[in-house]
Amino acid sequence: MEAFYTQKLLQKNHQSDEHFERPFSFMAVKGKLRNQKKGTTMNPLTHFRKIRILPLLSLGAIFALVTAAHAENLYASANAPGSHKIFEFTPSGVQSIYASGLDNPRGLAFDSLGNLFATTAHEADNIEIAKVLKFNLRNHISTLGSAAKFFFEGLAIDIAGNVYVLANDDTSPTGASTIFKFTPSGDRIVFGSLPSQGWGLAFDSGGNLYAAQGPVNFGGDPTIYKFAPDGTRTIFVGPGAFAPGEYPVGLAFDRNGNLYVSIETFSDPGADSIVYFSPIRVKSTFATGLTFPRGLAFDSAGYLFVAEANAIPAGDILKFPPGGGSPTVFASGFGRPEFLTFGPPR
Q: Which domains does the chain have, with CATH numbers?
């Protein structure tokens, strides 16, 4: 691996045969995974690789040095049965497993210090328990916060290090969603809400948070909401911005402030697409002919990466050149990728 990250601990994932999968929708797979490695003592839920940290440097300084010295790697959460993991990819596409033994990993994001945050969910005594996990620079894992009877999806982090998650309420007859704000100290605050089921979150350069509402489970109208830093909610684009049967899913901003949106139809795989909205809400089509596009992420050169959440072995990540055009397959065959983010090599 790179300097600062010279030691990898590869873990094999010994999983039970018991898997439970929701209908193919945003309320996706649930599974019970067990990880065992003889003679090794680790977190019972999660295995990850250890790193070697140079002495006498603060964590922030290490992160700054790594970011300056190396191209960012791509991280992807994957949720097919048997593949509840976070994958890491080098810029050339070399794949490795960053964390395994997770339960429904979803949203991913790095804070300014290089800590990786991920949402997960599992069922305990028939109650859904959703968590925000934190992987620090030493790859130590801790729980930042949690919520019962919710299923966490998208995750985004503001410049102050607050973590925002889109939480779907399994008990709500309308599928109403809540946006929770977790402070760096772990305090949980209700920041906002959506009338129906939501998925992706993204911040613009002004600190406004955008949330995609669209899954068909509860009949919610396809809408992208905009939340001001104080939590005031407005509609960025409403149902009129989408064709019948289209639903917004993943969100990502490019360097020019355009909001890119992955769109699923659910009834016609292969007819899914990616569109983008300018800051003044002018809509343009970026790509068509996709199947289950979900997580979106831009690299530092302006390439757009798209997770197509097909089941094993068809799950893939596409790479689009800046400005559009035919994509290349960046990675494939690892099963239902959901969310993407870029960060330093681990």
A: 19-343 (2.120.10.30)
